[in-house]
């Protein structure tokens, strides 16, 4: 939805992308908050959580050695220390938004997958699932950025409704609450879905997948310029910046005029915490 050409570069061409400090910090903070729940409730304190940061960073480096290039040219370690300090501040802010001593998540980093009646398969990873004694489900997602302005809240909630749809189709339970925890600004955004909401999301996903399939067949992946282009790793091969995309690796059929109109995807705002894309080519 953000940019069809970017989808092509990532999913079809599989062009490499450099790790970013912001996205990696988000991964680190998520790991710390997940691991904190390994401790007994009484020990889930801010100092303990902050103390987990260096060890989780070491684990990230071990699993993804390429992350070390983020801090090349920093022999004294000042940039790294500042970056880790910001991760600690984000972790500490979480304690002003939720009380982990009163939470016992049913699931953490839960992989979910389901197949719709249409045959479209959806999958994603949910940060946290809370379940009340009466069986009500709350889906929680941590964001290390700032909360969006009210006019853009719907775009942020799309990811959560995606997860809710998967859970509903998988377990026949509509989550009672969707909760986005913004550590960057100290805000909590909540939404209580109903089946009609999730049915609309399902229709939107089916239309999106039709557009993806059409673009895959025709090779017509158009760039959609926005201010997010400034952070894109693929400017060198993007026509909007004078570049030429690599040769399309799949066979194509000519697009008919009706196909072009039917294949348009409406823009939607997105951030680093995107839901997993529908499975496809």
Describe the structure.
- It is a single chain.
- The protein is α+β, with helices and mostly antiparallel strands.
- It has helices spanning 4-12, 21-36, 46-63, 78-94, 153-171, 195-218, 257-262, and strands spanning 107-115, 121-131, 137-143, 177-182, 187-191.
- It has a 5-stranded mixed sheet with strand order 1-2-3-4-5.
- The radius of gyration is 20 Å and the shape is globular.
Order of helices and strands: HHHHEEEHEEHH
Approximate shape: globular
Count helical runs: 7
Q: How much strand content do the residues show? A: 5-15%
Measured between the Cα atoms of the first and last residue, the distance is 16 Å
Biggest beta-sheet profile: 5 strands, mixed
What labels would you give this structure?
281 residues; 7 helices; single chain; 5 strands; 5-stranded mixed sheet
Topology, please?
Blueprint: H1 4-12, H2 21-36, H3 46-63, H4 78-94, E1 107-115, E2 121-131, E3 137-143, H5 153-171, E4 177-182, E5 187-191, H6 195-218, H7 257-262
Parallel strand pairs: 3-4
Antiparallel strand pairs: 1-2, 2-3, 4-5
Helix pairs in contact: 2-3, 2-4, 3-4, 5-6
Summarize the structure.
The chain is α+β, with helices and mostly antiparallel strands. It has 7 helices and 5 strands, in the order ααααβββαββαα.
